[in-house]
Amino acid sequence: MYKNKTFTVKITDLTNDGAGIGRIEELNNLAVFTDGALPGDICEIKIKKANKNYAYGELIKLIEPSADRIKPVCRVSEKCGGCALQSLSYKAQLKLKRGIVINCLERIGGIKNARVHEIIGMDEPYNYRNKAQLPVKKNKRDPNKTDIGFYSRRTHDVINIYSCAITFGEIKEIMQVFRDYFEKNKNIVYDESKHTGIIRHIFIRSGYKTGEIIVCITANLKQNENLPDDISLINGFKKIAGLAGIILNINNERTNVILGKTNKILYGRGYIFDYIMDKKFKISVNSFYQVNPAQTEKLYAGALELAQVSKDFTCIDAYCGIGTIALIFAPFVKKVYGVEIIEQAVADARENAEINNITNAEFIEGKSEQIIPELVKLEKIDLIIFDPPRKGCDIKLLEAVISAEIKNIIYISCDPATLARDIKILTAGGYKLHGVQPVDMFPHTMHVEAIVLMQRQDT
Fold it and tell me: 6-64 and 95-123+291-456 share one CATH topology?
């Protein structure tokens, strides 16, 4: 009944995906969520959808902008799903993210007055991402043109971009090579509604310290098929400084998963090298690798400082990926085990250990919740390091750690909500939270990383 009516609303907070939260006084303080609105804004909004508990609004006019509102660097930042916070000053972003961590600890974890340090931010919070996943789509108005960019918020509409303020600089040149290729090959772009066409996604990785670049083209092809006119595409990429390789990834499934199971090398090699601190890492297309290398060094240094390890420690790095954390910790401990479910990542981790001449790291393939409960029965573990995906740790793994009475836990999380949930479980199991260090790994987005130290209460 309120649809299409307008109201004046003051924005007080943001949702997890960056929509402004306000309340409509005339409707018994009904909560309303509005894209593009920031805390402190007084807005005129139009109700687009409503029920008895909340509503979704459209920003019609800024009556009084927030004191923290700034002009965004990117002209499409308020439409693109990549940057929800470019219009918010960086100082305000950091304050907001520390508040998110505190709020989750209190609301989900049941922990009040936690020792949450000031968030570690960036000196220059732009062009930090070393990875880009760019969908391609035919332009709706002109099917002879192709849009390359990022998805609009909560849709599969592609926002066409020519550069990106938070991604490494060479992305502009790479997109231009593709635009030239699409201009010559008009019917090559994939249509997800019809499952026709060929090129679906462009996936790019860049080495922060080495400058190496690999370009992966995800294509709707059969295993024995090649890209049309692939020589001209390869020649276009050869002009880009730092190019290490071009990969064709075959994905002919009707799915939203970006990468298929088969990779073919079209040029060069299928991986790059990069450094974190003084360690060298081989990074392939399928590897998990932190997207902000500059902040990753601060993150891992913070984890080392909190852990207070010694040369008689035996450690486990759960969800170890290509071995980054395990190999950073290895010189400071007696032994470190890395556990990872992805076969290729384990192979890369073992190779990375060899590259760095590290002999006290052992990598095991399998699910952490299956491997680690058995491992802690065989050997005394002094420290376990969690760096799980966004969904957090498996309950079986947490129960095994509690049962084994491992004294020290370092938990690195990219989701404060699942972090708080797992802290609550560990607290009930006899652990005490000693410190929380937020790190801004993702400037201009709503995401925030945090490092946590927990110890058994009898430690």
Answer: no
The CATH architecture one would assign to domain 95-123+291-456 is 3-Layer(aba) Sandwich (3.40)
The class (CATH top level) of 6-64 is mainly beta
State the pTM of this model. 0.92
Residue 231's pLDDT band, with cuts at 50, 70 and 90, is: very high
Active site residues: 414
- Using the structure block, give the residue that is written with the tokens 């409509």: 24
* Alpha-carbon dihedral 176, 180, 185, 191, rounded to 10 degrees: 20
Interhelix angle 171-184/230-237, nearest 10 degrees: 160
Extents of the domains making up the chain: 6-64, 95-123+291-456, 131-276
Q: What does the pLDDT read at residue 459?
A: 57
Interacting residues of 7 by C-beta distance below 8 A, sequence separation 6+: 24, 26, 27, 32, 44, 45, 47, 57
- Nearest-Å Rg of the Cα atoms of the chain is 24
Beta carbons of 37 and 128 less than 8 angstroms apart: no
What is the average pLDDT across 125-145?
91
Q: What would the pLDDT profile of 300-325 be if each residue is shown by its tens digit?
A: 999 999 999 999 999 999 999 999 99
Longest dimension (CA), the chain: 69
Return the CATH number of the domain spanning residue range 131-276: 2.40.50.1070
